[in-house]
Amino acid sequence: MTTLDSATVPDQAVRSKAAPRPAWLSGIGAFQSAAVLYMAVAFLLPVLLMTIRAVSDPQNFVDAFSSGIFRRSIWTTVRMSLTVTVVCLVVSYPYAYVLARARRTIVIILATCLLVSFWTSTLVRTYSWQLLLNNTGLINTAMVALGIVDEPIRMMGTDFAVYLGMAHVLAPYTVLTIYAQMRAIPRELEEAAQIMGSRPATVFWRVIVPLSRPGALAGAVLVFVMALGFYITPQILGSAQNVYIGTAIVQQVQAFLSTDVGAAQAVVLLLIVLITLAVGGKYLGIGRILGLDKAGQR
Q1: CA dihedral 263, 125, 89, 72 (to 10 degrees)
Q2: By C-alpha distance, which of 31, 184, 6, 163 is closest to 88?
Q3: Cα 17 to Cα 153: distance, rounded to the nearest angstrom
Q4: For the segment 41-82, what is each residue's pLDDT rounded down to a tens digit?
Q5: Is the pTM of this model over 0.85?
Q6: Residue among 159, 174, 186, 1 nearest 83 (CA)
């Protein structure tokens, strides 16, 4: 063996030893590859086909924005999503705080209620609110019987009904994100603030809220994005005069048979979602919660 050969063999051995094993050769790698393939086929492929159909003719976007109903639906949907997000945060903060600090019995009860809400179909929960809010529903019947009002109050077909129904569906997500953040806050911080003379309300606003803000922001972005694409709840509880983006897309596809224009409107909705996620990831610190930033990488 020459000197060159003797130098090459160790180098090859080092490279072969240092070379990572291909992921598809291991069972875990094969499973991951199959999962990625499934996600690509089931989710990315339909979105890609929809986008290609929409951008194949720029006239599709011109026709989409020429509709006054669609232009109004964008603002109506964003306004609704922002309102629902605020309502979810207001409701979720005390719920998550009690869930994180209460005794075991109360925690079990609250966690069970939260899980039951997750397990119940959105359609069932929406129709439940319809039964409660209509003119002959439980709420109006009780108020008339107690003499609070002389006649039933119109609640169905209003923004109030839509906000209430959607907050019921989406609030569990903000509860979980805030709860996960609050669990990481040491109780000693609250005790130290109380020893220094702070009242419980002051401790909550000056200690708990700032430290749990990343979880609240992550939940807010999640709820806002999910609310943008809601269709069933606004359709059942809302008014026909308030058209949301999901309703506008369904009208284009089913009523007007304009699938290309409907695809263009869906791409607009997708862009709004992507912009929201990008802003949330860059400026609101969502990446720290999800472990996607460089500091969270291992």
Answers
A1: 30
A2: 163
A3: 76
A4: 888 888 888 888 888 888 888 888 888 888 898 999 999 999
A5: no
A6: 159
